[in-house]
Specification:
The chain is an alpha+beta fold and 322 residues long. The chain folds into two domains: 85 residues, Pseudouridine synthase (2-Layer Sandwich), CATH 3.30.2350.10; 186 residues, Pseudouridine synthase. The protein has ten helices and twelve strands. Strands 1, 2, 3, 4, 5, 6, 7, 8, 9, 10, 11 and 12 form a twelve-stranded mixed β-sheet that branches.
Length: 322
């Protein structure tokens, strides 16, 4: 059976986004069956220089979903800056087992790479590691699996996989972090990079790039008696903060996940879903105001940008008088 080919989600003169199938490497030297090699061959076929195509982030081999390329060094550096400054909202969908007992969870960890034979995995450490945070929400429950949405705050290696494993509900098929039982549940790691959301570095257009759920994931959900939720992408309707990335909701922060099952559902989650059905941009911006009241200097700094728009308003008011 021939390997599944990627499909193009979005492209323009600066960016190319594809839906990478599970089992395909994002980037690998000495092989033609990688997402980068496929994209470069496509560029050459269209008589474009494949050398200028840059892979700006990575996905694990077994992870399917949105993979982004930049056309040219300058645009690649601009996109890398968006990732580095956390102005790209990444959303993953996964099947995990056993079914979590809570609906929402915020996982904060310190991760450190650990050598295992010829490979590598990430381990959770008490100190000396890199910060990794994930926001997890259970979207649907079946007999064995739960469909969860995961939004990582950073882009650490295996970040989503480690967070779900530490919560007690590893991703189905994830032998590395879930053990033999997880491997028996699915033939691969059932993790899908559902979407990327960011501002186009050249056109400034607000982009939300979606990759359809793969057929093997949907089949496992159906066979488990579950139903994929209609609100799969509801988190993306949250208002975007002034600094360019969607505000995280005030979920409970968990460092020791032993007592995760006893966590209450966070009341603050309802603030992003007012009665009218549309998200309210004002409330998420008001939430950080309390911590800013203590230091006087940080409060004075934002006052200047707020006064700046007053001049254009005065200029417009004088025009009718003339």
């Amino acid at each position: 059976m021939p390997p599944v080919e990627p499909t193009v989600i979005f492209e323009d003169g600066w960016l190319l986004a594809i839906d990478k199938p599970a089992g395909m490497l994002a980037h690998a030297e000495g092989t033609t069956h990688s997402a980068l090699a496929w994209a470069q061959a496509r560029e050459a076929k269209a008589q474009r220089d494949p050398v200028f195509l840059h892979l700006v982030h990575r996905l694990d081999r077994q992870t399917s979903g949105v993979l982004l390329f930049a056309r040219g060094k300058a645009i690649a550096e601009a996109v890398n800056a968006l990732f580095r400054d956390r102005k790209v909202l990444k959303m993953y969908v996964a099947l995990c087992s056993p079914v979590p007992t809570v609906r929402w969870l915020k996982v904060d960890q310190l991760l450190k790479p650990e050598r295992i034979g010829s490979g590598e995995r990430m381990q959770v450490v008490a100190e000396g590691g890199i910060e990794a945070s994930c926001e997890i929400e259970v979207l649907a429950r079946g007999r064995r699996f739960a469909v969860v949405r995961v939004i990582p705050d950073q882009g650490r290696k295996h970040q989503v996989r480690v967070a779900l494993a530490a919560s007690g509900s590893p991703i189905a098929g994830d032998f590395l972090y879930g053990g033999a039982l997880s491997r028996q549940l699915a033939p691969r790691v059932m993790l899908h990079a559902r979407s990327l959301q960011f501002s186009h570095p050249h056109t400034q257009e607000h982009l939300i790039l979606f990759a359809a759920l793969p057929s093997d994931l949907k089949k496992l959900v159906a066979d488990d008696g579950g139903t994929l939720p209609t609100n799969l992408d509801a988190r993306h309707r949250a208002p975007v903060a002034k600094h360019g990335r969607a505000p995280l909701l005030a979920l409970p922060k968990i460092n020791n996940l032993a007592g995760a099952a006893a966590l209450p559902q966070p009341r603050s989650y309802a603030r992003a879903k007012p009665a009218g059905g549309q998200p309210s941009p004002s409330k998420p911006e008001q939430a950080p105001s309390k911590p800013e009241q203590a230091p006087s200097k940080p409060e004075q700094a934002p006052s200047k940008p707020e006064q700046a728009p007053s001049k254009p308003e005065q200029a417009r008011s004088k025009l009718p008088k003339k």
